[in-house]
Amino acid sequence: MYNEVVVLCPLCGIRRARRGCPALGKQICAVCCGTKRLVEIRCPSDCSWLASSREHPAAVVVRREQRDLGVLMHAARDFSQQQSRLFFLVSKFLVGYESPHLQPVIDDDVTDATTALAASFETELRGVIYEHRPSSSSGERLSTALKPVLAEAGKGAGSSFTRDAAVVLRQFEPAVRQARDHDRENRRAFLDLLGRTIGRYPSSEDASPESQESPRLIVP
């Protein structure tokens, strides 16, 4: 009789606790395990439930991953290898960017900043040096933070980098629009997409020579 005592999940207090959680050192329910994993629960890498979820992801997760990859592949469909690397570099920067004013950046800021920078590079290609400015203050801050990253990437490349930068930066606006079409209520739909995809790869500073080939994963 004592073996039939129902133990409720300590996280939700509603469902029966059936899964041993190595991070919490207690039993929790399957729902809390699935929804709070790596979000509220700091799962160790050797957790069997975590390993199983990665080997056999839910159908909704698979569909989202396919949709995310489709957005990136469409954006980079005509890129050269150098342009693909630049797209990866800018995307990686966007994933890690934190506004100095503690105001979360949104997709509109990405569009605002990249469109203005693309226009500046296009003007330079015509032989005119003119800096186009984003229309919002948050877009301006993002643009200012991105400029030194682009300047470092373009050292010694000359006009070829200017052309590549203009092409790559122009592709962010349609990519943002496509991501938002799938998640209209989310003002960070594209940034969240980058976090789920590009954000999984190490930065160029931390990457080994093998992992630096990762940008090819988004090129059809």
Structural class: mainly alpha
**Number of self-contained structural domains:** 2
- What gyration radius follows from the Cα positions, in whole Å? 22 Å
Low-confidence segments, ≥5 residues, pLDDT <50? 204-220
Beta-sheet strand percentage?
A: under 5%
Question: What's the end-to-end separation, in Å?
Answer: 61 Å
Characterize the biggest β-sheet: 2 strands, antiparallel
Give a quick set of tags describing it.
220 residues; mainly alpha; two-stranded antiparallel ribbon; 3% strand; disordered C terminus
Compact overview of the structure:
This protein has helices spanning 30-36, 48-55, 59-75, 81-96, 107-125, 137-153, 159-170, 172-182, 189-196, and strands at residues 19-21, 26-28. It is mostly helical and 220 residues long.
Structural overview:
The structure is a single chain. The chain is mainly alpha-helical. The chain has two domains: 2-55, no CATH class; 59-218, no CATH class. Helices cover 52% and strands 3% of the residues. The protein contains nine helices and two strands, in the order ββααααααααα. It has helices at residues 30-36, 48-55, 59-75, 81-96, 107-125, 137-153, 159-170, 172-182, 189-196; strands spanning 19-21, 26-28. A two-stranded antiparallel sheet has the order 1-2. β1 (19-21) and β2 (26-28) form a beta hairpin. The longest helix has 19 residues, at 107-125. It is elongated. The N and C termini lie far apart (61 Å). Residues 204-220 have low confidence and may be disordered.
